[in-house]
Amino acid sequence: MKKIANYAVSALSVTAIVFSVATFCETKAAPQEPEVQEMSTATAAQPVDLTYAAEKALPSVVHIKYVQNSKIQTVEVQSDPFEDFFNDPFGGFFGRGQRGQGGTRKQQVQTPKKTATGSGVIISTDGYIVTNNHVVDGADELTVTLTDNKEYSARIIGTDKTTDLALIKIDGKNLPAIRIANSDNVKIGEWVLAIGNPLGLNNTVTAGIISAKARTLGANGVESFIQTDAAINAGNSGGALVNTNGELVGINAMLYSQTGSYSGYGFAIPTTMMNKVVEDLKQYGTVQRAMIGISGRDVKTQVDIEKEEGKESDYGTMEGIYVAEVVESSAAAEAGIEKGDIITEVDGQKVTKFGDLSGIIAQKRPGDKVTLTYLHNKKKHSKEITLRNEQGNTKVVKNADLDVLGADFREITKEQKQQLEIQFGLEVIKVNGGKMKEAGIPKGFIIQRVNDEPMKTIEDLQDAVKNASTSREPVLIVKGLFPTGKRGYFIIQLQNE
Q: Which residues are identified as catalytic?
């Protein structure tokens, strides 16, 4: 589980049984009624009817079992000089053994098998399911169980750590897909249900209200959370936050707690953000993330910081985004936005805090145009800018795979490890063309590190290529050994289409 801020915890459940005492409110359920116009007909103590919402949404929320198999890993441990001497009295002189520098040595250990559970939401009748990235990250096996106890093996279509969302797929037909609502329309104080599998208890529903919108916690790269007081616990990760019509308004992601258990604050990723991520993962395999090119904070936070430093500030408003830094050659820089400016609107939508800005831009793609309204020296300005990707252009960013390298690889053999006195590496067994040939990497070269990450498996190399291809600098720095034992390195430029 991940911890953020003052113990903000992802709601993924490990395989442990936890018992707790809960308070239940009696509610029935029916479709949401039109807004009451006459104040005299409304009763403050009237219970909200939520049984209709639960009945509609429950079949769409699934249980996800995560399995990560046991693996052999090489780790550095503190050396015991006496044990080392008796095991190999001449190792220190002739360089044998696996001792590292600074009193450490390398040792192979077997990691235990890991299992955990989370939740997911069926969003299409043919088996697409949305969940959290942290529910599926690193999984070797994923098993999805529906409310009728049917089980399916799931495969990962795509993940996005920046928003903590993942899209998985099961092979099924006529599945109970949830209806998706526009999360921008939810209101603070509106009743919602959180549905999932908390603490090992399947098909659990809790009720509460929308406590706040556009919350940022510093947990993920892009955040604009819906805050709710509907109880969210370990195991609720990836589950549904629904309105009184049983429509999805958010994907439950984490709780804010000093104990690791629910204490009044839960957070969900809004459907406006989810829809964009899902569409991108289906179409491109990775999220097309648009950027203005600034870093900043709520203007009130900036004023408070300056007050603590003994400064008095007047930016002409207390609502908006204080621009703390402008990225060179970014869309914001070209528009003339400067440090100290205050962004107040995007396309006419008011932004009072950073979560508002993140939520709007998260729905955009590179190449989209937006109009920024901002204050410069307290004077109002509006400019249209073209959003760019992390690499500073408007091209589609695609996940590259090993095919782009144009080579075949295999993990080095035990004999190669002994001969070259190394513990891991990938041998280039064939160069067909592509980026490997362009970089001059020959057959027989043993890749040990790519962008400073160890290459122990083919999957490690795949991850390195994928991560580099979507980064600001799509470059692979490949370090390793020639068959003679001589060390060398190469630079591979990954170009996007």
A: 134, 164, 237
Per-residue CA distances from 299 to 16, 117, 212 (Å): 44, 40, 19
d(C-alpha 250, C-alpha 267), whole Å? 9
3-state secondary structure of 62: strand
Question: Which residues 6+ apart lie within 8 Å of 90 measured at CB?
Answer: 96
> pLDDT class for 201, splitting at 50, 70, 90?
confident
The amino acid sitting at 487 is R
Residue identified by tokens 């203005």 is: 292
Residues in the chain: 497
The identity of residue 488, as a single letter, is G
Tens-digit pLDDT profile for residues 329-356:
889 998 899 999 999 999 999 999 889 9
> How would DSSP label each residue in 272-314?
HHHHHHHHHHHHTSS----B--EEEEEHHHHHHHHHHTT----
Which residues, at least 6 apart from 25, have a Cβ–Cβ distance to it below 8 Å? 47, 207
- The residue among 1, 5, 3, 2 whose CA lies nearest residue 216 is 5
